[in-house]
Amino acid sequence: MKTNLWIPTVLLTVFVVAISCVKDTDFEQASDITARPVVELNLIHFDVAAGDFYDETTGTSRLTLSDTTEIRFLDDSGLQESLLRAEFFFEFTNSIPRNFDVTFQFLSEALDTTYTAQTFVNEGTTTVPVITTFEEIVEGTEILDLTSADRVVVNVTIPEANAELEGALRLKSKTTYFLEITERE
Amino acid sequence: MKHVLFLVMAISLSGTLYSQNKQILYGFEEIPQSLLVNPGGKTQLQKHFGIPLFSQIHINAGASGISTYDIFGATGEDITAKVDAKIFEMQDTDFFSVTQQLEILNFGWRTQSDFYLSGGIYQEFDFIFYYPRDLAILGWEGNRDYLDYEFDLGQLSTTGDLLTVYHFGVNKELTKKLTVGLRAKVYSSMLSYRSVNNKGVFVTSIAEDDDENVYEHRLEGIDMSVETSGIADLDEGPIGGKLLGRALFGGNLGVGVDVGATYDITDRLSLSASALDIGAIFHTKNTENYTAQGDYTLDGIELLFPPLSAGGDTFPYYDDLEDEILEEVAVDTTTTSYTQMRPVKVNGGLQYRFGRILAGTGVCDCRNMGRGSEREQAIGLQFFSMARPKGWQMAGTFYYYRRIFDFLTAKATYTYDAYETSNVGVGVSTTFKKFNFYLALDNLLRYGNLAKAKSVSLQFGFNIKVDTE
Questions:
Q1: Which residue among A95, B238, B288, B467 is least crowded, i.e. fewest CB within 10 A of its CB?
Q2: Which residues partner with A39 through β-bridges?
Q3: Domain ranges in chain A?
Q4: CATH architecture of the region A35-182
């Protein structure tokens, strides 16, 4: 009895399949679906005092302050494939009466420099801090250089420092990531 | 691509929008399984026996607010533009759902004191996933154009269950006008998860001028959870045997009842109602729950420029940041027991019968004084409602019923709900000798092109039945 039921079940399934259909559709289009999110994210920030450029114990100036941080998501394969454009925005607030030379050096895991951005920061005073902004736009073939990196080295260079120097140099920064996410074979 | 195809399959396969609405089966007395939709339905049965594994096969999948055609229709429009429009058009109350039931056993018999007893076992899979609109927008567009906008993470709401139901019910014509029924159920849960009542927002806003950062990225009032049972230990040992054991009372158990009644207001008019799955499953074994709570503001990476000797390492800023996030928005894993209410289903129906009287021979059926008469045709209205994580889902049905021949009965339905306004269904029940076959198809107008259907449903089965002569 039970095995005989396969026949009506199969017939019924055939019937339902026969009267039903999916038409006027094109599933190949799925590969054309493209999301284009634009993501705003803080990058790094710092606040260095004028005194940091002078080592009181040795009585010598430290003309270049340097620090490194990983930005591990940068060389993620997903970001590598989908990043179209990155806009870096840096805002320096300087109350030290000196100009600065600041470089952002992007390094790969093997510590090769893949991308560099550089800017000058105008001098300010302790009473009237001066704001200098700097934008760096990375797109096209340079994107690959940027996304080959997973860390950034920041070098802040002062032309001259002494024990009496006052004030602080502050940085806040953000990146706008323009992504294009689509299916890849 | 696989994910997209899965979605397409899920939408196109079949199913009612309110995936457990069995509007064709409800009140369809010729089909023994109508007692599962209303245990207090009228029945002429003396006994019945469902063909094991073939007595009721019920599958459906549906999506509100979207059909396959909406996205993949060969309309010549840019597909990204169509997806874009849908992402904003759909609401967080829209959902994708799949329900499947397979009856393993079903039987019933009439006792000498005229109770109709019925029982059986069925397996059920039920899944619902609400459209998390804000998260979809965040993923699709990013946060640049949404500064100060509070992305609601609480829109995330989904449940899934795989269980076996053992049931036994009693149906009795209390008076000539009133028939009532009660069905007791024991649930044996094989797999279950739910993530409901989530709370929290994500917001990006421009920080104050004197702030150390350009933006404030904030997670506020996070209170999110996922509760699972039977899933955590699935990777240990063979799954098949484990699930089978749980299906046979080895799982997390629960109890529930179905109640229902039918009342003949006049000879031609009757009112009926049922409430199904009033009960709960107590998840005490193999539970694993994850919760995340708190507030967090992403401060980002602050460089400290420590004086370093050549070749020395600076601080692990990135690791510290990751650790901080994990600490502030800690995901706690617990194995606490939890109770899960079954999704209650409510049916109501008003029926008006007309045409030739079936039971008895003439206009006056002397053996049937006071009872509603069985007639050749009927029209009626039905109401269905089901408790879901984001509130009650409702549907209304208008139907026409007709006994075409002694061996063939049909019911045509028109169902209206907030999403689908042209859902026409047909059900037929045929009985040759004692062999009963029934088929109910929903959303018939869409079978011409399933891609345009937001949902379609299908139920069919085979029974041996003996009616009252």
A1: B238
A2: A177
A3: 35-182
A4: Sandwich (2.60)
